[in-house]
Design brief:
Length: 87
């Protein structure tokens, strides 16, 4: 269970949702600079928040670490239908 040091509430939720939505932006065929820039900024912010929570000894690192890992996996995941098969 999260401890009382996780008092940022809505800011935590907003950044995590923005981070997860930015993963979707990198997956759609829209202009990549906007989606990629947003994703990288969110990845840096979520990674920094994870590192900060870990360095403080707080259990707040759990939701940050989970969001960070979902962002990384979501960004590098390749659907079998979109991969190129070399013969």
């Amino acid at each position: 269970m999260l401890d009382s040091h996780c008092s940022w509430g809505w800011a935590i939720l907003a950044l995590q949702l923005l981070g997860l939505c930015s993963v979707l932006l990198t997956r759609f065929p829209i202009p990549h600079r906007a989606g990629l820039g947003t994703f990288l900024a969110c990845l840096l912010a979520v990674g920094g928040a994870t590192f900060f929570a870990l360095s403080q000894g707080s259990s707040c690192w759990v939701p940050w670490g989970t969001t960070f890992s979902l962002m990384v996996v979501g960004a590098i995941f390749q659907s079998p239908s979109t991969t190129l098969h070399a013969i």
